[in-house]
Amino acid sequence: MKKINYKLIFIRSFLLLCMLVGVNQGLLAQGFSVHGTVKDENGEKIIGANVLVKGTTNGSMTDEKGNYTLNNLKSGSTIVFSYIGCLTKEVVAGSNHMINVVLQERNEKLNEIVVVGYGSMEKKKITSSIANINSADFNKGNVSNPIQLLQGRVAGLNIVSPQGDPNGNFTVRLRGLSTLGENTQPLIIIDGVIGADLNSVDPNDIASIDVLKDGGAAAIYGTRGSSGVILITTKTGKKGKARLEYNGTFTVENKDRSLSVMDKDEYLANGGTDLGGNTNWMDAITRTASTQSHNVSLSGGSDQTTYMASLNYRDAEGVLLNTGFNQLNGRLNLTQKMLNDKLVVNLNLAQTSRKSKLGYQDAFRYAMMMPPSAPIYSDSSYYDKYGGYFQSEVSDLYNPYAIVKQNVNDEIKSRLMYNIQADYQILDGLKASVRYSHNNDNTTVGSYKSKYSYYGDGVNRNGLASKSASTNENDLFELTGNYTKTVDKFNMSLLAGYSYQKFTSEFFKTEGGDFLSDAFTYNNLSASGDYKNGKASAESSKESNKLIAFFGRANFNYANIIFLTASLRREGSSRFGSGNKWGYFPGISTGVDLNQ
């Protein structure tokens, strides 16, 4: 009998098993294939959809029949399906080698209602360049001006901040300079009120902002729309139980950097004169500034009445000493439905009170020029005439710290705006609207140069005070009619309107010097000796002008595929000379939905 060699059998079996494992691993390394079809919700095959293995460059596109094939997949790979206008979908590849996918249409953005001139439209039907930013997309953080909500959010809209000055004006440019005149900033419209002041609305009260970027969209506003239009819509109440909300923020702000200037040692090494001090002038006139804001709102309503009331308080310090403001805003938005909901009346009421310390921005300039070897104060009796502050007495060179400490520059503003609009549904598809709004801005500015101030001629005039008061009123009346009609796949919307706006402004200013004391600053001008010696001055003015316009717009839409918008405004102003008081402003745009 032949003896069995179990050891040899074991070795051969082990080798065979290794060979089988190696072959199997080789097959796994080569991967497997997946194929299928991509369709939309209506069962239509999608051509050109992207199919990609997540995290790799292994991808494909669907052909004219909506089919695709992917090779060299590994078990557990995630396949990403995407197409323009549809929601992206991810599927994990398992043992199934056929994966059919249905992509859902992305409707939420296209169906958004966007505010346009004298109305609103669905985003997918707009043929001109309009950017819509909702509150969820606004910039967060230390926002003291509503325009900051848009910084970096709208292509072509450039916003430059006033560099740490909370009272400074933001520079806003849309598509660069569009005119050589002074009206280079976009037209501001708040809840339909043309030419409203941005500071009359608190950032917390804004629901959405729409930017009309091109001529086709802005032409409906005539001359004032040449630099673009920014439409601001404030928050309104919603049906339901009363809802009380509070929002508060606290922020601090510091200068990020300053121009590189010599310190005392470098200044002396380069031939400078030692004036007995060692001062970093930029540090001397700046501080860590804090800002706090508080917003309380109450909203709610019923089927017939909704309301939204808010109160906002904002206290902002400037990085420069003695600059900043505190502001109180109150707003009420009320909507009332009547006559079986055929008549809708909207009332917007806003009141703003703001007290500002404007300071003197010249201090930054002289902080760059003043020698670092100079002291802030001097013990020498010679400088008593400057209140103890050191002054170099060189032409156009002043102690920057003395500028911000010795002098006063204040502003008080009060704004009142009320806006009432009534919309009446005359017939099915035919609606008439009438609006009346009134704006009243009162501004008082008081400044005082100390009798010890070398800056601003305070020393030479023995104290110099000035006070000015200005009032600007704006009355707007508008009447519009809107008609919409749909026949089969053809839809049209027609708008016609009339606008009348009157502007009235008054201004008064007086200035005088020669005071016995700095105690009154600008609040007791009768103490000025200049009114007796004839050196005092006064000026005043009053003017008014009117702007009248007739306008219309037509929107046509065929099967949500082809869109056409045309508008025309005939506008006249009393500011223009005889024979040139009226002008025409046309606009036209068209579009095609390539997905359809």
Description:
With 596 residues, the protein is mainly beta. The protein has seven helices and 28 strands. It has helices at 6-30, 215-218, 264-269, 281-285, 362-369, 400-406, 530-533, and strands at 32-40, 50-53, 59-61, 67-73, 78-82, 89-92, 101-103, 113-116, 119-122, 130-134, 157-160, 171-174, 187-190, 193-194, 206-212, 229-234, 240-253, 289-301, 305-317, 324-338, 343-357, 408-427, 430-449, 464-487, 490-513, 537-558, 562-573, 582-592. The strands form six sheets. A twelve-stranded antiparallel beta sheet has the order 17-18-19-20-21-22-23-24-25-26-27-28. A five-stranded mixed beta sheet has the order 10-15-16-13-14. Strands 3-2-5-6 form a four-stranded antiparallel beta sheet, with no helix packed on it. Strand 2 (50-53) and strand 3 (59-61) form a beta hairpin. Helix 5 (362-369) runs antiparallel to helix 6 (400-406). Mean pLDDT is 87; it is low at 20-29.
List the helices and strands and how they pair.
Layout: H1 6-30, E1 32-40, E2 50-53, E3 59-61, E4 67-73, E5 78-82, E6 89-92, E7 101-103, E8 113-116, E9 119-122, E10 130-134, E11 157-160, E12 171-174, E13 187-190, E14 193-194, E15 206-212, H2 215-218, E16 229-234, E17 240-253, H3 264-269, H4 281-285, E18 289-301, E19 305-317, E20 324-338, E21 343-357, H5 362-369, H6 400-406, E22 408-427, E23 430-449, E24 464-487, E25 490-513, H7 530-533, E26 537-558, E27 562-573, E28 582-592
Parallel strand pairs: 1-7, 13-16
Antiparallel strand pairs: 1-4, 2-3, 2-5, 5-6, 8-9, 10-15, 11-12, 13-14, 15-16, 17-18, 18-19, 19-20, 20-21, 21-22, 22-23, 23-24, 24-25, 25-26, 26-27, 27-28
Helix pairs in contact: 5-6
